[in-house]
Amino acid sequence: MDNMNFRIQDLTKTLIPGIVVFFLSFLLILSEKQFTYLSLLTKDTMAIWLIIFLATVYTCGFFIDLCGSFFERIYYHYREEPAMKLLNDKSRRIKLSSSAIIIDYICDILRVSSQSPFQKEPAIKMFKCANVYKDYATNNAKERVLEYYYSMILSRNLSTSLLISFLVYLIFFLFNISKWTFNPYSLFIILAFLLFGYRWTTLAYYYSRQVFYAACEPVLKRQL
After folding, report:
1. Rounded-to-integer distance, Cα 13 and Cα 111, Å
2. C-alpha to C-alpha distance for 115 and 148, rounded to whole angstroms
3. Would you list the DSSP string of 6-30?
4. What is the DSSP code (8-state) at residue 117?
5. Of 14, 54, 151, 216, which has the fewest CB atoms closer than 10 Å, so is most exposed?
6. pLDDT tens per residue across span 14-37
7. Distance separating alpha carbons of residues 71 and 183, to the nearest angstrom
8. What is the DSSP code string of 178-223?
9. DSSP state, 119?
């Protein structure tokens, strides 16, 4: 049942962003008359169009997932990663409780100094180590990690789909500049992009923190 649940979540993080970019692109580009005509055209062959629609949005969603992963690498190339901020206690709102115990435990495994602050490369190595050791945690701990992971990826992919929808809108009207009119949906897309972008970066901290907790579960339990 758990495997089925996470397969559904894996499908969701691909399908929902695909549906968003597909629907919003049509909403931004087509006029009301064109949208009505398209609806009437597909009415009699709904089953066929539904299959085409699902195949299209899944392909879009897969492409969005790749783009999201690419944008994530670029973003964290210029910004400190959540793991680094948590280890160095730089996050204002989200803290890594029992950080000293967690740092000592992981540094003992890696046989490196536990002296902070940690630079980017050592912090990434510590997070990668924690990501491996989390697989030895209890099922409850691993489920919490996966829950945060899928929530984070869904938010990342949704923000990416909104960005792509807005780019489609801009490109379309660049080629139709004489017919350009302001579409209020574009403002909604910008606001939604900022909202989901903020949620993605916030969930990245919760996910990273949960990875550390799961990896250090044995030593944290001994402290209770």
Report:
1. 37
2. 29
3. HHHHHHHHHHHHHHHHHHHHHHHHS
4. S
5. 54
6. 777 777 776 766 666 666 566 666
7. 26
8. GG----HHHHHHHHHHHHHHHHHHHHHHHHHHHHHHHHTHHHHHHH
9. -
